Amino acid sequence: DTGVSQNPRHKITKRGQNVTFRCDPISEHNRLYWYRQTLGQGPEFLTYFQNEAQLEKSRLLSDRFSAERPKGSFSTLEIQRTEQGDSAMYLCASSVMNWDRVRTNYGYTFGSGTRLTVV
Amino acid sequence: KNQVEQSPQSLIILEGKNCTLQCNYTVSPFSNLRWYKQDTGRGPVSLTIMTFSENTKSNGRYTATLDADTKQSSLHITASQLSDSASYICVVSYPNAGGTSYGKLTFGQGTILTVHP
Chain B partners of A91 at a C-beta cutoff of 8 Å? Predict the structure, then answer.
């Protein structure tokens, strides 16, 4: 499978617990993005990486959220002390970013997401 | 106010019929405009991508149009099939101040299309 892989597909956790999600991007992609999507809404940007560097974090990413991409390949998103408002689909995407100012972000591809339910 | 607005919010059509979904955006300037299809519980899948200089792009039964002057885009689906039932999301990507896009996408809220037999 050469697509973006996310694990687990579903996660149910009790409020206050910590959870960690994993994203494996397409192997040659140097950019990796995390989004959050709630029911009936479009995805909202959380953060993105260029290789192993985290270049931007949204204000949506509270102190309880942390993302890493230690070797520039897979990434993890951890949520500490989960709250019911964290229940959402967490989407990962990857792309190839080149420095041609006219054409950028080839192959922007999403994973199937991790559905988090906090009870 | 959302920078990408879609209409209608939901649409029900009969199998075999055509339909058109609308997208208005205020993000300017932008690098490209994309339409994605998202099945329930799945990640978005790209249908079309257009730069600001393109005004139409087709992908099978899907045809997207773009009017950069009025900041409007549409997605036309011909001969709809039951499998077209999904959420269709309009997405705009814009460059940062340095002139290169860092790839953050601004999403519309989506149009939920239901195709009935």
Answer: 43-44
pLDDT digits (tens), chain A, 119 positions = 569 999 999 999 999 999 999 999 998 888 899 999 998 888 998 998 988 999 888 888 889 999 999 988 999 999 999 999 999 999 999 988 765 544 455 668 899 999 999 99
* Residue in A105, A113, A115 nearest the CB of B103: A105
Parallel, antiparallel, or unpaired: how do β-strands B111-116 and B86-93 relate? antiparallel
| Among the listed residues A88, A85, A103, A92, the one whose alpha carbon sits nearest the alpha carbon of residue A16 | A85
Distance CA A8, CA B18 (A): 37
Phi, psi of A10 (to 5 degrees): -135, 145
**A vs B: CB pairs below 8 A:** 67
Q: Is A96 on the interface with B (CB under 8 A)?
A: no
Query: Are B101 and A41 inside 8 Å of each other by CB?
Result: no
Q: Compare CB distances from A105 to B44, B93, B107 and report the shortest one's residue.
A: B93
What are the CA-CA distances from residue A74 to residues A6, A24, A77, A81 (Å)?
A: 10, 4, 10, 23
